[in-house]
Amino acid sequence: MSTLPKQTPGQEWQAMRLLRLFYVRLSREFALTVPPCEALDSASDAPSKEDMSAARQWFHQMDGLIQVHQLRQFLQTTTGVNEETLVAMAQHYIRKPVHNESDRDKVDFLLVQLVTQTSPSKIEESEVNLGFVAGGLQEVLGTFTPNSPEWLKPLEGLVKTAQNCESLNALFSSGVLEAGRKMKADAAERYFQGAPLIAFTRFNFLLRRAFFQLMHGDINAILDGLRELESRGIVTIDGTAAQFSSEESIGQVRMICQSWKVMFQAEYSSGHPLRVLADLRSIVEAALGSSAPVKPTAKPALKAKAAAASAAPAASNAPEFEVAGDYYPGATES
Predict the structure, then answer these.
(1) Which of 45, 66, 71, 126 has the fewest CB atoms within 10 Å, i.e. the most exposed one?
(2) How many domains does the chain have?
(3) Which residues contact residue 141 at a Cβ distance below 8 angstroms, ignoring those fewer than 6 apart?
(4) pTM here?
(5) How far apart are CA 289 and CA 292, in angstroms?
(6) C-beta separation of 225 from 287 below 8 A
């Protein structure tokens, strides 16, 4: 059970009426087939017990149909979803008497999204402490004195490990993502208590920032490597390790990399598309290592430039691939 105060029937009804509009929009976007809820569709401000029961059942159906990736995609590509709706949605999932893995993943995303949207445009990582996150979640959790129970202490080490990684491959190999997910799963219902919600949201916020910086560095490193390969007269690379063709044109790879800008809206994950990006960087580095420069004035090796890009992605004077600031959590400069 969560620590949120119990709602009155009137408060619950108003929250359901607010969320109904969002759920209807989302169901249309993903062609989810759910019968309408006449009780919610009516304009009644004084619902009967039957109306309340029907509305709760409708939300139960919708929650079972809506996947976390659909929620994430809709919120990050749709305008007009305000802070009030995010707060109501997070509270809706937190208040459920029994939670499943999907509920946890949705809360995970909603809370970090809320902190991201309400954070100052420029904030140093050192400022993102538990108090900062508790303030960002005040509308959801109320006034809460943050603390970190002993069982949550490992989160700090996981954050530091992620921040020390120099590429997506390094992040994926570090075990940070798996360890963080295991801690959330092991928490079970404790996850939905105030202190764990604040601690895990801070972890998600900082890990998301590290992830996007590494993704930025990987894409810039790939594009730098492609330019270097072209300067050596190479027009194709063997991309089979990243599920491309054995003679993939450099022009096509460049086009794909540039289109990957939209992936900066994705959740950090070791899933298929981002594994492809990490593998592609390895392929380009291998191609550079196996081909000799045509000119003695060739550009520096990719690894050196990649390390610089990963360590300070904003330092490049004129990067071929520039990431818009609003793709970064709580920052426009990273």
Answers:
(1) 126
(2) 1
(3) 3, 4, 134, 194, 197, 198
(4) 0.79
(5) 8
(6) yes
